[in-house]
Amino acid sequence: MTDINATYQLLCDQARETTMLARIQQLLEWDEQTKMPKAGGPYRAEQVAYMAGLVHKKRTAPEIGEWLEQLTQSPLAADLESDTGSNLHHLRRDYNKKTKLPQSLVEQLAKACTLGQQAWIEARQADDFKKFQPNLEEIIRLKREEATALGYEKTPYDPLLDDYEPGESTENVARILSELRDALVPLVQAIAESSQRPDASLLARSYPTDAQKSFGTEAARAIGFDFNAGRLDVTAHPFMTGLGPGDVRMTTRYDEHAFSDAFFGILHETGHGLYDQGLPREHYGLPLGEDVSLGIHESQSRMWENQVGRSRAFWEHFFPQAQAAFPAALKNVAIDDFYGAINDVRPSLIRVEADEVTYNLHILIRFELEQALIEDRLQVADLPGAWNEKYEHYLGITPPSDADGVLQDVHWSAGLFGYFPTYALGNLYAAQFFAQAEGDLGDLDKQFRQGKFSPLREWLRKNIHAQGRRYTAAQLALRVTGSTLSHESLIRHLASKYGKIYGL
Ligand code: CO
Questions:
Q1: In which domain, by residue range, is 86 found?
Q2: Number of structural domains the chain divides into
Q3: Helix, strand, coil shares, percent, the chain, to 5
Q4: pLDDT at 1 exceeding the cut of 60
Q5: The CATH number of the domain where 259 resides is what?
Q6: How far does the centroid of ligand 1 lie from the alpha carbon of residue 170, in Å?
Q7: From CA 40, how far away is CA 19, in angstroms rounded?
Q8: Ligand 1 centroid to 305 CA: how many Å?
């Protein structure tokens, strides 16, 4: 007679150990992006590949299959919403997916992606796509192999998307994004035709980077980031990575003549960081202690960056502090001119600098191109041309160089295919959650004006962060907001806000 509880403990111990190894790998990767000298690259690639192989081996150990077999039939698995039922459901789903991938493929991919990122950095600096082309071809070949090993019915893009947005389908995402696009295009046109134009040039005045660092850090602290349990460092391409309970790493980059880049980047990563700091510690290392999906993660960053950080109420609180921090740039600026400048809407080349309205069109371009690459309808050699054509089509502009075009994002060099659409899903979830929070908490603007951010943060903590991975993204949205994901809340938010700014 096997003791079911003892078996469950063995399974949980193994999962916690695997999480620990995965976090060690992430620490190597964080170091590579922030501190590592360039010459350390090739050996670091070997280290990361080794760790990825080790993690994969742990996650796919045959005894896990035996334990899961026993446990799935047991009372512990009966209730999907119980702690044990939820953990077992996710561990089983992850195990089934992981065991389909051969060890050699996992190691090849890890190495190709580390070398890919190094090649991407050089290609971007040299503005020379050809330096990166063979790496990207290799990565896509391996990702197609991965999709085949995982299996799919409709498109090889489906199992890749599922890595970041579990349970979501390419077809559903394509439908929601096309509905969003149909509602966005007339809004973008109306804004473009408006005679009211904010002067965004005031954000390109001199904002000393030391002052940017302390002002951004104070804002992150004010909305609730715990710096005893996290750090902020400098990198080429900003990201957040959770290395353990009590260790959340955020990164940013500073440009003296671009205030928005670092400041809204920091708010964005702080939103991610708050999610990780709010995950239930008692479940750390198990699915219940993890985030739901990248879309839900991104909803947290976009909410603090946009719904909160680009609101007029937020700046009624922070603008006097900003004027004190950057007297040369802001001393004689009126708050409405500043508010207009940070909400300037215009088609632009760089995704991470795009405004709240056109941002989703940048995502749509990447979503369409990466589907075509993975489905073998587009060759890597033709990618720069296809990229430029889409920018002309959706945004009416053509990148003057590949560095500001197809080479601007790190994702493909890191093998992250299926990742981009989660940014747009994040915008949609953010708007839907924020509308519900306003319904539950009353006038949020009034609270922001007083510098009170804890009611919203605690609402997010209770309804989203503390739930861990108990529900899928779709279930969570339904539970928290009473409706499934749609483009409507986001369009309502954008139309109302930008209607006022642009006098529509
Ligand atoms: Co993000």
A1: 2-146
A2: 2
A3: 70, 5, 25
A4: no
A5: 1.10.1370.30
A6: 20
A7: 25
A8: 10
Expressed in angstroms and rounded, the spacing between residue 332 Cα and the centre of ligand 1 is: 33
Count of CB atoms situated within 10 Å of the CB of 450 = 11
- Ligand 1 centre to CA of 298 (Å) is 5
Instruction: Please compute the mean of the pLDDT values over residues 197-220 and round it to a whole number.
Output: 97
Residue 25 makes CB contacts below 8 A (sequence gap 6+) with: 48, 51, 52, 55
Q: What pLDDT, in 10s, does the model give residues 76-99?
A: 999 988 999 999 999 999 999 989
Q: Is residue 242 part of a domain?
A: no
Ligand 1 centroid–CA 421 distance in Å is: 12
Q: What is the mean pLDDT of residues 294-301?
A: 98
Q: Which residue has the higher pLDDT, 146 or 181?
A: 146
Rg (CA), the chain: 23
* Long-range contacts of 186-190, Cβ-Cβ distance < 8 Å, separation of 24 or more: 187/357, 187/491, 187/494, 187/495, 187/498, 188/345, 188/347, 188/357, 188/358, 188/361, 190/502, 190/504
Quote the pLDDT of residue 81.
Answer: 86
Which residues are placed with Cβ below 5 angstroms of ligand 1, an ion?
Answer: 298, 301
pTM over 0.90: yes
Q: What is the pLDDT of residue 2?
A: 65
Pair (258, 128) in one structural domain: no
CA–centroid distance, 239 to ligand 1, in Å, is: 7
Q: Which amino acids are annotated catalytic? A: 269
